[in-house]
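Bug report

Summary: structure tokens for BTB domain-containing protein differ between web form and batch submission.
Environment: batch mode, default settings.
Steps: 1) Submit the sequence below via batch. 2) Compare with the web form result.

Sequence submitted:
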Amino acid sequence: MASQSSSPSTSVQKFEDADFLVRSWSDGSTFAVNRGKLEKGSHVFRDMFSCCDSGAENQQVLDLHEPESTLSALLRLLHSPPDPPVQFQREPQAEKFSTLLPVRYDASTAIPLPVLRVLLYLADKYALSDRGALESLHAHLLAHAPTDGLTVYGLALMLGDMPYVAAEASQYVLPLAWYSPEEAKVVPTVAAYHNVLQLQAYRVKALQDILLREELFPHGYGMCATHNTSAAAVWARTRLILARKIETNTDVAGEMESLVYIFQSCTTCCKAFNAAVDMLAYKCRRVPRRLDQLPDDGCPGFDE
């Protein structure tokens, strides 16, 4: 992977506090770097330098089989790791009661995915040891999960040890049937693909079960003496239709809430309807959304 040389390229790109030279074997591009930062930030560089003669370090050149652009990205990562993306400040209670998936970072402040893919590949290849730099890269990757869930899930498994990022990203993966074969290739193993498939099947079954059990007038509570039969029939008919259409990302309570216009003319029915939708949303929120929340037995089971 590396060799020692004493004839560096005439064009040198310099980093702060440079005391050593690194050169691209493929095109001769040379970088003046800080050897201490390379040793501190990467297990691979640490092992390389441990095999080298410690004398006359400033006169040495380390040749790496990387093109200039890749080598530049690696050295910048080791000298000045990127700050994490801007994180949204959210009230824990608001997220707890929301039916929407959490958005933790401002995606506009995240490193673009094509660049991030390269950085994560290099972090894995050169065994970066700086936890702060690694956590920052992981946060940048997670910032893309709400819009590129499957890609983030696949990269988290493919490029380093990121179980937390993979688990978080799994909740943003759209129904797998919606992806093309080319898009699905980002998932590195059949087992990893199957895990998401199992999570989504679990969610669909659990959401269907909750929807089909939830009544407009549970135990007769809030039942309207005038419209109880017709109102309950509308609720029952709509939930049967919706149950057949549920996907892993369906907002079940939100879909049922679209019936509100039918119940608005009756205060009693409207009150019962809102209570039923709220209870439906509460129960659906408790359905696992991430792989790390999936029960070991894979069987739906919810306390009433």
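Above is the batch result. After comparison, the two runs are identical; trailing whitespace caused the diff. Residues 1-9 have pLDDT under 50 and may be disordered. The chain has three domains: 2-66, 92-188, 199-293.
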